[in-house]
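Q: What would this chain look like folded?
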Amino acid sequence: MAREFFNKLMECVKANKGKTIGGIIGFIIAILVLTIGFFKTLFIVLCTWLGYFLGSKSDNKEDIKELLERILPSSRRD
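A: My prediction, written as structure tokens:
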């Protein structure tokens, strides 16, 4: 009985991956907001997004140093 329920649940999860992942992320963010507060949670979310963004650039073989210099130009005068 439990195995059958688990198999049906896994079929549902596989058919709705985006909804499942979105629901889990929303649940985690809600718990974080309730336990540590809105601004700390916002900081965690922004840092996570930045890490994901830079990681995706690295995966695509883009130069992260060049990207950072374009976003944050150096104040050096050559």
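The chain has four helices and no strands.
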